[in-house]
Every structure is written in C-alpha cells, then in structure tokens.
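Researcher: I'd like a structural prediction for the single chain below. Treat it as a standalone chain; there are no partners to consider.
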Amino acid sequence: MTVHGPPFRLVTLAPGHFHAALVQKFMHPDISPVVHVYAPDGPELEDYLRRVESFNRRADDPTCWDLRVYSGPDFLERMLADRAGDIVVISGNNARKTEYIVRSIEGGFNVLADKPMARTPEDLPRLEDAFRMAKANGVLLYDIMTERHEMTTILQRELSRRADLFGRLEPGTPDEPSITKESVHYLSKMVSGAPLVRPQWFFDVEQQGEGIVDVTTHLVDLIQWALFPGERLDPADAKVLSARRWTTPVTREQFTRVTGAATFPDYLHRGVQDGVLNVYANGAFTYLLRHVHARVSVAWDYEAPPGGGDTHFSTMRGTRAHLVIRQGREQQFKPVLYVERATSVSPTEHEGALEAAVTSLQDRYPGVAARREGRHTALSVPGHYAIGHEAQFAAVTADYLRYFRDGALPDWEVPGMLTRYATIMQAFERSH
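Model: Treating it as a single chain, here is the predicted structure.
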C-alpha cells in the first residue's frame, strides 16, 4: 500500500476528547484541509468545533481547516457509507472505542487512535482481531504515543545506550526496579490557553476507563521503547507481579468547576459517598519485561500547584550511572534529566564518560550540554527542543503519515502495541 497522489483526507469520528482537536492544531502539507466529522449532537462536538475554529482564528500560524460535519445518531453508519477520507481519527468516550476501531478497519479505513485502544480485558481480543484485519486489508492501525517526543525522555534513552557512561542496566528487583515511570495528572488544567471543560463521562470508569489502563499506556510504551528499541516484543514477554488501584476524591463543587454541570449525573451515583465522588483514576503495577523489573504509576489530583502541570518522574538504573528525570518545584515543573554517578565509578572516570556521551549527541541534538547541580549533573536542553505536549500530537501525526506513505508500520510497532495492551490488561485484572 504505497500511497501517492493528492493529500490524505482525515475523518474525525465522535471527537469527545480534546486530543481529537490537537491532531489538527497545526496544518500538515500531506493532509487535505477538508476534514469530515461524524459525531452525535452535543457539547463534545461543539467543544471540538470551537477548538478547531480557535486554531483557524489565532494570530500566530493560523490553520485553515474546512470542517464538513454530519451529526446524528447514525453517525458511525454514515461515516462507513460515505467513505469520505483515508484516515479516521478516534479520540473520545472509550466505552465504544474498540468497537469504533474494529468497524473502521472492517470498512477499509486507516485508523489513528488515542489511547487507550482497549478499556477492559474483554476489549483485548477484539483489538487483536483489529490488527489482524488491518494487515489483511492493507491498512494501518496506530495509537498516539506523544511521550516518545519529549526531549528528556529521548535523551534518557540515548544515554542508556552509552555503556561507558551508563554501564549495563541493573537487573533490579520488585522493590527496586531497573526502570520506573511515574506520572501525575490534574483534572483541572489549561489547554490551548483556555480552561479545559471535561465531559461528565470522563469521571465514569465504565466510559473513560480506570486509571490503570489509561495514562499507563504511555508509560508502558516508554519502557518498551527505552529498553528494547527496534525489537519485536511478544505479550508472553511481560508478566505483571503486583498491581493496585485507588480513588481520587472529587467534590461536587470541583466537579461543577471542571464540567459545568450543577450536580453528579445518575450514572456516577454509585461512586458518591457523603457527597464526594470517588473515581478509580489511579493505578500502579510492577512487572517483568523479559528479564527486566519495571514499575509504572499514574495518579490524578484535582489541580496543580501554581505554575505546575502534569508531571513525569523516571529512573533508569545502570551499573555505572542512574538516569533520572524529575519535574517538581525545584525544576520549576519542567522536566530535567539528571545523570547520577554510581559510587563504584570515580568522579574523573564518570566526568570523562559523560563528556564523551554529550559530545556524541551533538550531531543529532546540537546544543545539549551538561551542567553541575550540587552533587549531580543535569542536562541543559535548548528551549526549541521543548515543544510541549500539545505540539507532540503533530509529531506523532507526521510519523504516522510517513508510515502511511511507505505503506507499513515499522515491523516492531504492532507487536509492541499488542504487548503493551496485554501488559496493561494483566495489571487491570491483578488490581481487582
């Protein structure tokens, strides 16, 4: 399926999450400005249309999307019948997401889907079927892994491949894993310069999914991507050792501030106790990926501290150095990569290996440098590399379009996605 000719045509299906609009935050030379949208009527569609229109109207680098909207209860059937595009973007309510993916693949569409592509273990066999059908139909199914484009994460992976600096990855234990990825997110936040209005169903695990199967998708992907770059993984390579979930309390006032709704809808009442909604938005698990102990953790709080936002913490433990990403108040809530010398390595030997490693980065990442911060060394990253979460959607879309034009994903991507979701569903089952 090598693609030539006119620009690719996007179709947006049921855009219930703001990520659907972020795919269109910037124009792409290979994408037609005409985008067909199929969705039910309601505030989620209106929010998507307003957001895309704000991109068209902004003073700096405005877009020129021309949205052709069909809204009605038969939106899915109408999309399949119209065949108005090449690539379906799916980002919204997760209750039917796997169904939407399967139906789109059956209809001959390529699919660019937001995470998670599976919400419960029951969705996993259908997702596996979708990948088989995609191969048979010659179309591409891909999920949006934005965090691969975060610069400190890229540099952490790069430096872990420099044996003189990092050594070998420590084998780790369940209590001290070789690699950790932790993330804290916030219900109240700003997106594209405006307060984010979340749909009420976002707080329903039957529609949004539990935290242990949502943001953990990114973290498990980063672990696979860092440890085994370019290698084909298999679901049998992953074994979850322990998992837990816990709730985030949301008061009625907080719920109103984030959704605009005056009270909790009936379908959320099962989670309300003493006037507070308790949402299973958090999850953590430890697992073995081949021979490596790994741990992921995702927590949701209501609102970030002043100047803060969603944060990421990560450690890769090498025999000669540890590579640690921190993003707290001390780092002004910006991710910073630290290189921490192992006690078995002399300062002189460590500094020489670090200098050589940073020099080796210059051809690909010019301007990256090392600086001392107390007992540790941090990597200085020029500002133009810090593109931010919203711009990362454009980078993922560009990757997908390149694969689309080539007619195939890299041969490790589909096995990686299947392994990722199989791992997460193991964790889901162990946490219940």
